[in-house]
């Protein structure tokens, strides 16, 4: 009998009712690809929560193994860049959406989708960063390219207690920025201060319909919320500032006006982590390994086992998770 491994499989019936099951698979059940990886660690991102709960149309091929990122060791490879024993990371590329993902003992993917695990970083560390942290790093890099350096003034991070927000605060504070953290969970203020936030404000300050322009409060920011929150953040951004938008936890709409753009020269920087070119990914992971304090990673993450993934998926969608969740496979 071929070796089997556990996997979470999301399926849909003829009436499009979704079900989630734990099943046994073999490598014959995996999809096409030229590299097979033993998955050692993964994580639960907001998108993974949406995929498992079915609260948004993340999964677009049925049945499917969800999980948009993983770290592990190459078992076999027909790709020239990888050989057996290499330690690798995968983020995005439709994995966990249209291609079997991380919530299985093994994954078969295209070698072009992989990047090397940075030296000195474990698979667990990499997934404490995960797609959320990698996205936070892409956001910081975008702000830097736009000239938003610490001397320009404070920066705001919305959804601060979530995965993207937690890592963004840690990175930005380590780089010398004055970070204003916005959260709907006031009890998390000590946690956010420990991560490096200089100030913590309530989400309610940014959740009401925005004025076209409001008092200038920050030079830049990282927003993972969208909707009214992003509209307010833009209206409060100072002249020539920029906001990196990378999430939609509060909604996909943007009820804003052109005023911040044409009267203050504010820029809205779109951040896509799924299809980012490989060179951008390599630089982001290099910067993560250089600029993110690994000791802080332990304070912003907790570890669960494979059996805890489904519950964690529900918790993250309901806003009950702080920071990052690492899954030890």
Radius of gyration: 20 Å
Order of helices and strands: EEEHEEEEHEHEHEHEHEHEHHEHE
Percent range of helical residues: 25-40%
Number of helices: 10
- Average pLDDT taken over every residue: 96
Q: Low-confidence spans: pLDDT under 50, at least 5 residues?
A: none
In the CATH hierarchy, the architecture of the largest domain is Alpha-Beta Complex
What does this structure look like?
With 329 residues, the chain is of the alpha/beta class. The chain folds into 2 domains: 5-117 and 295-328, Quinone Oxidoreductase, Chain A, domain 1 (Alpha-Beta Complex); 131-270, 3-Layer(aba) Sandwich (Rossmann fold). 29% of the residues lie in helices and 26% in strands. The protein is built from 10 helices and 15 strands. The strands form 3 sheets. Strands 3, 4, 5, 6, 7, 14 and 15 form a 7-stranded mixed β-sheet that branches. A hairpin with a 5-residue loop joins strand 1 (5-12) and strand 2. Helix 1 (46-53) packs across helix 10 (309-317), helix 2 (123-145) packs across helix 3 (163-174) and helix 2 crosses helix 8 (278-291).
Topology:
Blueprint: E1 5-12, E2 18-25, E3 35-43, H1 46-53, E4 69-77, E5 87-91, E6 106-109, E7 114-116, H2 123-145, E8 155-157, H3 163-174, E9 179-183, H4 189-195, E10 199-202, H5 204-207, E11 218-223, H6 227-235, E12 237-245, H7 259-263, E13 267-270, H8 278-291, H9 294-299, E14 301-305, H10 309-317, E15 324-328
Parallel strand pairs: 8-9, 8-11, 9-10, 11-12, 12-13, 14-15
Antiparallel strand pairs: 1-2, 3-4, 3-6, 3-15, 4-5, 5-7
Helix pairs in contact: 1-10, 2-3, 2-8
């Amino acid at each position: 009998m071929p070796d089997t491994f556990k996997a979470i499989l999301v399926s849909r019936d003829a009436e499009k009712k979704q079900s989630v099951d734990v099943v046994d698979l073999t490598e014959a059940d995996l999809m096409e690809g030229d590299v097979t990886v033993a998955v050692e660690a993964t994580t639960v991102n907001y998108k993974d929560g949406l995929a498992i709960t079915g609260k948004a149309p993340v999964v677009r091929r049925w049945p499917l193994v969800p999980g948009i990122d993983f770290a592990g060791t190459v078992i076999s490879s027909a790709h020239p860049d990888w050989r057996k024993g290499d330690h690798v990371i995968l983020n995005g590329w439709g994995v966990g959406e249209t291609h079997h993902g991380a919530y299985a003992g093994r994954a078969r993917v295209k070698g072009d989708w992989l990047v090397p695990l940075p030296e000195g970083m474990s698979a667990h560390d990499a997934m404490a960063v995960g797609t959320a942290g990698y996205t936070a790093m892409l956001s910081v890099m975008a702000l830097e390219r736009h000239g938003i350096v610490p001397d320009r003034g404070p920066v705001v991070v919305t959804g601060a207690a979530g995965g993207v927000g937690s890592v963004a605060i840690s990175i930005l504070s380590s780089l010398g920025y004055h970070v204003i953290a916005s959260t709907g969970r006031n009890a998390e203020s000590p946690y956010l201060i420990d991560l490096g936030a200089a100030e913590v404000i309530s989400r309610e300050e940014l959740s009401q319909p925005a004025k076209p322009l409001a008092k200038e409060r920050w030079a830049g920011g990282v927003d993972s919320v969208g909707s009214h929150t992003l509209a307010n953040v833009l209206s409060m951004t100072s002249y020539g500032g920029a906001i990196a938008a990378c999430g939609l936890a509060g909604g996909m709409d943007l009820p804003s006006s052109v005023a911040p753009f044409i009267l203050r020269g504010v820029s809205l920087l779109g951040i896509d982590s799924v299809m980012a070119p490989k060179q951008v990914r390599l630089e982001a992971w290099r910067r993560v390994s250089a600029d993110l304090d690994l000791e802080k990673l332990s304070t912003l993450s907790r570890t669960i086992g494979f059996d805890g993934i489904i519950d964690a998926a529900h918790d993250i969608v309901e806003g009950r998770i702080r920071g990052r969740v690492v899954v030890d496979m």
